[in-house]
Amino acid sequence: MSTRDNNLSQTKSFREASSPPLLLKEELTAAQFLVDVRRWAVELGFSQLGVSDTDLSNYEPAFQRWLDNDHHGEMNYMAKHGTKRSRPAELEPGTIRVISVRMDYFPPEAESIQRVLGEKNLGLISRYATGRDYHKIIRKRLQKLVDRMRAEVGEFGYRVFTDSAPVLEKPLAEKAGLGWMGKHTNVINRSAGSWFFLGEIYTDLPLPINTTVSENHCGSCTACIDICPTQAIIAPYELDARRCISYLTIELKTAIPVEFRKAIGNHIYGCDDCQLVCPWNRFAKASDERDFAVRHGLDAPQLLDLFAWSETEFLKKMEGSPIRRIGHSQWLRNIAVALGNAPTSEKIINALTSRRPDANKMLQEHIDWALDSLTKQP
């Protein structure tokens, strides 16, 4: 899943950093208030809430090395804002606390990922994207949480984020006690696995912070490293996004490198393989959020059906979906690669051939690769 700089955040002006801390209502301590905030968060559908300070100095060097090694690929927005990403108070002056939340998203009725992976005429879409776009859902819930907090203590400075703007959300979640950073670089919760979204509220409220260290329970397990089709996890806790299927099918806007096309298999939007094999996901909880329910059969779609969509159909069916932002051409590019990895058939060859004349040069090149790949099958 990617971090993008967009305007899916809401803000209320922060008080000057030199102003006195917010005074909570009489007889309401900060600790008691936080208990209420956690309860309201659960009522709004969040699975857990934690609070941290803004000190990410232990994480900043590793993030900078990741950028220096160009492991972010063409995600230039990751480096765009300098140290604002790792120093919350630089992004929002006056920030002294970060409230982090997580929300489970795995759709309970979704087709087995293993079955879809095994049927090469089907397309595999990362389970976070088979329902509605989580950005707006979580942002609205966070705003409702802020509104409930303001009703209790009055005005305060805040800014709401969900996979938006320059925020190191995984380190912040770890500091807040929501879990630990796994070897695949996703956050893992001991009782809930890793199938969840994250969101943040930067604030000037002097809330109590989490003081427990998120102990790492990965141990000697290397399941996520071993399963990665493109060997994107180049070392424990180190991901080269340029090799990652999620990056290749979502963030990369140009041609997918030929060296990765066979390994992509039938993944057409994102990849869940490293989460699928994580032992801790046996404790994962399916989401009861209706907005995360599977739409348009995207948990096990026929590749040829998707490849036949016109741009108008794509835009209509993908309304309210995170998939919509990659655009029709990139969608077809991904499916063409998957078709090239499917068992050869006259229907597939005809579909690829008929789509080619009206395709742009990038899509034509991927169609040609797929046709060549099909003809070379035994």
Flag low-confidence runs: 1-10, 15-23
Structural class: alpha+beta
* Sheet with the most strands, sense and barrel status: 5 strands, antiparallel
- Mean pLDDT, to the nearest integer, reads 93
User: Looking across the biggest beta sheet, what order are the strands in?
Assistant: 1-5-8-3-2
- Examine the coordinates and then state which fold CATH places here, giving the name of the CATH topology of the largest domain: NADH Oxidase
Number of domains: 2
How many helical stretches?
16
Approximate shape: elongated
CATH architecture of the largest domain: 3-Layer(aba) Sandwich
Topology:
Elements: E1 10-12, H1 30-43, E2 48-52, H2 60-68, H3 77-80, H4 88-91, E3 97-104, H5 113-118, E4 124-125, H6 134-153, E5 158-161, H7 169-175, E6 180-181, E7 187-188, E8 196-203, H8 223-227, E9 233-235, E10 238-239, H9 245-251, H10 258-264, E11 267-269, H11 273-276, H12 303-307, H13 311-317, H14 327-340, H15 346-355, H16 361-375
Parallel strand pairs: 4-11
Antiparallel strand pairs: 1-5, 2-3, 3-8, 5-8, 6-7, 9-10
How would you portray this structure in words?
There is one protein chain. The two termini are 35 Å apart. It is built from 16 helices and 11 strands. The protein has a 5-stranded antiparallel sheet with strand order 1-5-8-3-2, sandwiched between helices. It has helices at 30-43, 60-68, 77-80, 88-91, 113-118, 134-153, 169-175, 223-227, 245-251, 258-264, 273-276, 303-307, 311-317, 327-340, 346-355, 361-375, and strands at residues 10-12, 48-52, 97-104, 124-125, 158-161, 180-181, 187-188, 196-203, 233-235, 238-239, 267-269. Strand 6 and strand 7 (187-188) form a beta hairpin. It folds into 2 domains: 10-108 and 133-203, NADH Oxidase, CATH 3.40.109; 223-375, no CATH class. The protein is of the alpha+beta class and 378 residues long. Helix 14 packs parallel to helix 16 (361-375) and helix 15 (346-355) runs antiparallel to helix 16.
